[in-house]
Amino acid sequence: MQGSFDQAIKVAEQAKEFMLLHLIAPIPSHYAVAYCYFSKENLSLIKKIDGQLTSKKPLDAIFIDALFNEFLSNSQNIEDNIFTPFGETLNSTLAQLDNQVSSGQAAISHLNKIEKTLAQLSVEKPLQNITTFLLNAIGQSTAQHESLSTELYKASEEVSQLKLKLEESRQEALIDTLTGLLNRRGCDKKLQALSLDNIHSSLVIDIDHFKKVNDSFGHSIGDKVIQLVAKIIKEHVTPDDIPVRYGGEEFVVVLSNKSQQFAHTMAEKIRLAIAKLKLVQRQSNTQLPSITVSIGIAELHNNMTWATLFNNADQALYQAKNSGRNRCVLASANTAA
Q1: Is 6 part of a structural domain of the chain?
Q2: Residues 215/222, Cβ–Cβ less than 8 Å
């Protein structure tokens, strides 16, 4: 166990020196790349860094970030392969040191008793000198162990903080920053908790003529429209549902354990609420054209995958677009609401 701890410390020091040498910004993702390089666990990553060094190209942030995204962007792998093993090694070493410190303190206590007894008995001086020497030696060893334990506890706390930040980053990676809704990755993760054997429905929502809004009023206004639409969607779904910004001006809502009829009613409420929006560009005091959405609705049936459900809802959305927009279409009946 001491060997694995020493190796982890060695790799950590090599990673730190490597980052200093190449002026690599000391952020967690860059450290993860450097650590993996010296731990020699990913041959493809090592080959790319060695190739960059051989060609005398800089190890700049763009290159390091690309390596992180290619090999380590799955944050679970970072935790499983770096932080968790290192944390386990630290904890094991700390436990051993604590045992040694406890044994040393017990030995000091016994030797103190012996020293007092020898003094009372007026025995030979050499024997007392040996006892004093043992007390000093064990005391120094115990102090060294206690000092090392303090440093290791600090390192263990830092590992715990890094794991906490990693979990926060993992959660942030599931959220669309503009709207606060889940993104595609977040949607996929949430869907894992739902059974395909139950009844679920899906809405696919697309903002009508959104490109005209961007072209006429700019992307900042376009972003504001997306945020307002997302806000209305969030206000109409339940805590069990999964609202998602699927990309651009398109949204998906998975209605957990709800029929297509229920989904249609909710879709209509969302559509009408968005159509009531009155938006004005503050700088020019210009009123924006009416914001409307088209919505496709589908229900999960037996032997159907999530991809099939979304595709059915998407096909219904296309029909809503082709039928004049600002309407809801049911995938099963293919009739405009």
Answers
A1: yes
A2: no
Beta carbons of 294 and 323 less than 8 angstroms apart: no
pLDDT for the residue numbered 13:
83
**Statement to judge: residues 313 and 280 lie in one domain:** yes
Q: Is the pTM of this model over 0.70?
A: no
Asked if 78 and 45 touch (Cβ cutoff 8 Å), the reply is no
The residues, ordered by sequence, that sit 6+ positions from 129 with a Cβ below 8 Å of its Cβ are none
Residue 336 is predicted with a pLDDT of: 42
pLDDT, position 144: 58
Domain assignment of residue 58, given as a range: 2-73
Q: How many whole angstroms separate alpha carbon 265 and alpha carbon 206?
A: 17
Strand 250-255 and strand 242-247: the pairing is antiparallel
Structure tokens given for 236: 């109409």
Low-confidence ranges of the chain (pLDDT < 50): 1-3, 118, 123, 127-128, 131, 334-337
Marked catalytic residue, from 115, 249, 250, 299: 249
In terms of domains, do 326 and 192 share one?
Answer: yes
What's the token pair of residue 84?
A: 């968790």
Least Cα distance to 317 among 159, 208, 158 occurs for 208
What is the C-alpha to C-alpha distance for residues 277 and 272, in angstroms, rounded to an integer?
9
- 54: which 2 tokens? 């051989």
Is residue 249 annotated as part of the catalytic site, yes or no? yes
Domains held by the chain: number: 3
What is the per-residue pLDDT for 1? 43
Residue 255 covered by a domain? yes
Can you give the pLDDT at residue 139? Answer: 57
